[in-house]
Amino acid sequence: MDNDKVIQVEGLTKMFGDFTAVDAITFDVKKGEIFGFLGANGAGKTTAMKMLIGISIPTAGTANVAGFDVFKQAEDIKKNIGYMSQKFALYDDLTVKENITFFGGIYGLSRNVIKEKSDVLITELGLQKVANQLVASLPLGWKQKLSFSVALIHDPKIVFLDEPTGGVDPITRRQFWEMIYKAANEGTTVFVTTHYMDEAEYCDRVSIMVNGKIEALDTPKKLKKQFNAATMNDVFLKLARG
């Protein structure tokens, strides 16, 4: 595996019976890159991500994530990545502190490290006053930022974010992207799926999926030039229309 590339994918395919959800996609992601995995709902983004994080076995192709093979070393992949799902992987019936402690334990951190990281995380997020409240009582935006922070608690090489800004207001979306930039600046590779085309502008490179295939892949600037488009939304619309 190329040391500069933390994700390498070639011909990755996922079929459900006769339906091809992900159709022989090929791409790579560099260390410390913010890589946008874009497409409309149902384009195959989440299915592709599930293969990359080791929870769905591909039908065909090859993929290497954080130095591990998705077919043979799925458990090793899970230990070396962070993951934030569309519905946030937090437990509503646990407090903020209890959620952090629980996930720190899942990722194999010691009690002392969990305590240290918990204090830092709660302070950075400004959650001191609600640290002992149930997560169910938090506004959606706070849940979102807490979920992202928990996904980073074990200092993973890569963090996978599946539609992380869905349903939140523009201010919270901007704050969340500031957190993404901070993580990338500290060396974490960020792989983010979204159907918000304006968020593509925040990525170093983006791929655009249409009907299970990657139809375009480059920097936002180059894609806009290639498709003679003013915005990434215009690029997407041109691709969607064929």
What proportion of the residues form beta strands (DSSP E)? 25-35%
The counted number of beta strands is 10
Reading side by side through the largest sheet, how are the strands ordered? 6-7-8-3-9-10
Count of DSSP H/I helices: 8
Quaternary structure state of the chains depicted: single chain
Helix-strand makeup class: alpha/beta
Task: Give a nutshell description of this structure.
With 242 residues, the chain is an alpha/beta fold. The chain is built from eight helices and ten strands.
Structural account:
By secondary structure, this protein is an alpha/beta fold. The protein has a domain at 92-137 and 144-155. It contains eight helices and ten strands. A six-stranded mixed β-sheet has the order 6-7-8-3-9-10, with helices on both faces. It has a four-stranded antiparallel β-sheet with strand order 2-1-4-5. α6 links the parallel β7 (158-162) and β8 (189-194). α3 (96-106) packs across α4 (111-125) and α5 (140-151) packs parallel to α6 (170-185). The two termini are 34 Å apart. The mean pLDDT is 91. Residues 7-236 form the ABC transporter domain. This is ABC transporter ATP-binding protein. One of its GO terms (molecular function) is ATP binding. It comes from Zobellia barbeyronii.
Main attributes of the structure:
4-stranded antiparallel beta sheet; 10 strands; alpha/beta; globular; 6-stranded mixed beta sheet; 242 residues
